[in-house]
Design goal:
7-stranded parallel β-sheet, 9 helices, 7 strands, binds ligand LOHRUJSQ, binds NADPH dihydro-nicotinamide-adenine-dinucleotide phosphate, fatty acid metabolism, fatty acid biosynthesis, trans-2-enoyl-CoA reductase (NADPH) activity, lipid biosynthesis
Length: 310
């Protein structure tokens, strides 16, 4: 091997860290909380996409602390899963069918939430859309769909929430769920990465615009958090790496409750002066750089696609 071949060094990494080093410790057990019991008694939390995956995990932590939860999403089976998973944990649970691409459906969903429990105090902007696709293969409608759900839908929900609080003269707190490729770019996810960059930027703008009215807004970025509800597209992508743990500096993936704990802190009475910030919960994965970077593999080769043809 000559000294500058792309894989020089890579083949010599026989001292892989996994199994040799401990990595970041496991978190406290499911059901534990850093916040006092009852922190969210009497608080209404509106969670988009709260019937699956990370949205459900976030809603779970609020429910355990006493919150009333409203879950909004499109599919009946997801709404049913929200009711089944959240009922009995703490506060009350309501679900509402809503496609966040449509501002009228969002207004109707907030109206329904108010009828159930009153104006939500907290909005978790969690719903998003994503699938891996080489940028050159992506159809205009695929781009529009992901941007419409992830960026436009997030803004429409924040707008509806804020307008209602401005009208009522009450404070509120918003958390936008992001992704670290908002900063780094996301090969294979051009649509989602661009949309999440907008979601992060929106946090910074709205925190300044709405702070005077008592509305706090922060971003919360999950790293790799595998869960049972992942769409086939995302699951397939995650499964391409047979063992995820050695790919993370933490030597493990995130446990979904860790994201729920971060959300419940950000909107708690203990975080009132934090606004316009985006908290990354990924064990430092997005800052990962190697002394010798691995060889570059084009996205379509990573996805096993044939050469591009018009
Ligand atoms: C290490 C790897 C993991 C990194 C993770 C990175 C961090 C981000 C994670 C996430 O965001 S996870 C959230 C993922 N969850 C979801 O996406 C749930 C919601 N998703 C959906 O409802 C669908 O997947 C959808 C396609 C996004 C939207 O469904 P909808 O019914 O509204 O649209 P369609 O009519 O089905 O499709 C619209 C458009 O998009 C094209 N398309 C759909 N899937 C693909 C695909 N896999 N590849 C390429 N193109 C796709 C579809 O063909 C349509 O385009 P046209 O054919 O009309 O041109
Ligand atoms: N899991 C991970 O490792 C990572 C996740 N993230 C982010 O975390 C958040 C949650 O992701 P995750 O739980 O993994 O994904 P899921 O696919 O499990 O959740 C997405 C949720 O969004 C809802 N949703 C999608 N489109 C719409 C729409 N048009 N209107 C209303 N609701 C909609 C879905 O419900 P329904 O189909 O019923 O509408 C679903 O409940 C997302 O913002 C994602 O980008 C970021 C980085 C990594």
């Amino acid at each position: 091997m000559t000294e500058n071949t792309p894989d020089s060094g890579v083949k010599n990494m026989s001292n892989l860290a996994h199994g040799r080093y401990p990595g970041l410790p496991e978190p406290a057990p499911l059901g534990a909380s850093a916040l006092p019991p009852g922190t969210y008694d009497g608080t209404v939390v509106f969670v988009t996409g709260g019937g699956t995956g990370l949205g459900k995990a976030i809603a779970t932590e609020y429910a355990r602390l006493g919150a009333d939860i409203v879950v909004a999403s499109r599919k009946d089976d997801h709404l049913k899963a929200a009711r089944e998973g959240l009922e009995g944990l703490g506060g009350r649970v309501a679900t509402v069918t809503c496609d966040i691409r449509d501002p009228e459906q969002i207004a109707a969903a907030f109206e329904a939430a108010e009828e159930h429990f009153g104006l939500p105090h907290i909005l978790i902007n969690n719903a998003a859309a994503n699938f891996p696709v080489p940028a050159e293969d992506m159809s205009p409608n695929a781009w529009r769909t992901v941007v419409d759900i992830t960026l436009n839908g997030t803004y429409f929900c924040a707008r509806e929430f804020a307008r209602r609080h401005l009208d009522a003269g009450t404070p509120g707190s918003i958390v936008n769920i992001g992704a670290s490729y908002a900063w780094t770019g996301g090969p294979g996810f051009a649509h989602s990465a661009a949309a999440k960059a907008g979601v992060k930027n929106m946090v910074e703008t709205l925190a300044v615009e709405w702070g005077p009215y008592g509305i706090q807004i922060n971003g919360l970025v999950p790293g790799l958090f595998p869960h049972a509800d992942m769409t086939d597209d995302i699951r397939g992508n995650v499964d391409r790496a047979s063992d995820k743990d050695p790919l993370q500096p933490a030597l493990r993936a995130g446990r979904v409750r860790e994201l729920g704990w971060a959300a419940t802190f950000l909107t708690s009475p203990y975080a009132r002066f934090i606004s316009g910030h985006t908290l990354v919960v990924d064990g430092a994965n997005w800052q990962r750089r190697a002394l010798l970077n691995p060889p570059v593999v084009a996205v379509r080769d990573q996805m096993g696609r044939p050469p591009f043809e018009l």
